[in-house]
Amino acid sequence: MGSRQAIRDGEFKAIKQPMFTGKMELYDVRHDLSESYDLADQYPESIKEFEQNLKPRIFMILTGRLSKRCASN
Q: Of 3.30.1120.10, 3.60.110.10, 3.30.10.20, 3.40.605.10, which CATH number belongs to 5-71?
């Protein structure tokens, strides 16, 4: 399975797996608790925003300023 990164905003949860190179998936966790229906293609602007929000965390992991364990929270 490898490492992954997740971020949530309101009803949406974005997951990137593997963490550094994977495609971002997007789920509406209010209506899809099992995260079975990837909505990334339907909401490309949301994906761009989530990607921008994850970049600082990835940099902090790479530079040792944030442990991978803390980043997954």
A: 3.30.1120.10
